[in-house]
Amino acid sequence: MNSDQFRQDFPEFADPSKYSDTSVNLWLTLGGKTLDPDRWCDYLDLGLELFAAHNLSLAAGNQLASTVGGTPGQIKGPVTSKSVDKVSVGYDSGAAVLEGGGFFNLSTYGIQFLQIARMVGSGGIQL
């Protein structure tokens, strides 16, 4: 797996000035060292890409926080409510997260990754 294929499959990460090849390759390499090819089989490339996308999206949030004077690396969950003056918004984040997903529930890529990770290598079902 390489950054060119990743960018083709996930065009939202195509901008190398925002998502450097170094960063993309860092997460693809780490995924390659942690995801068992015998377990992931045909899903390995997708797993690597979702793993990288999840970590890149979290890193982008950290970069944005740093740019606007915030503290990068702060843990935040999904927005559940926010109000400004007389306008408010809330989200049912429980409907979109996976039970026990922890860190992977912090991005849609992480949720997709974890959903597939829970399926691969589970073996057949006998009725």
Describe this structure in words.
With 127 residues, the protein is mainly alpha-helical. The chain has one domain (3-119). It has helices at residues 3-9, 21-34, 37-40, 44-67, 108-119, and strands at residues 81-84, 87-90. Strands 1-2 form a two-stranded antiparallel sheet. Helix 2 crosses helix 4 (44-67) and helix 4 (44-67) runs antiparallel to helix 5. The longest helix is centred in the middle third of the chain and has 24 residues, at 44-67. The protein starts with a helix and ends in an 8-residue tail after the last helix. The mean pLDDT is 84.
Features:
127 residues, mainly alpha, two-stranded antiparallel ribbon, 5 helices, globular, 2 strands, single chain
Content-based structural category: mainly alpha
- Run of helices and strands: HHHHEEH
Proportion in β-strands: 5-15%
Low-confidence stretches: none
Mean pLDDT metric = 84
- How would you write the strand order of the largest sheet? 1-2
Question: How would you describe the shape?
Answer: globular
Report how far apart the termini are.
Answer: 38 Å
Measured on Cα atoms, how large is the radius of gyration? 17 Å
Number of strands: 2
Helix % is: 40-55%
**Largest β sheet strand count, sense and barrel closure:** 2 strands, antiparallel
| Count of discrete domains | 1
Count of DSSP H/I helices: 5
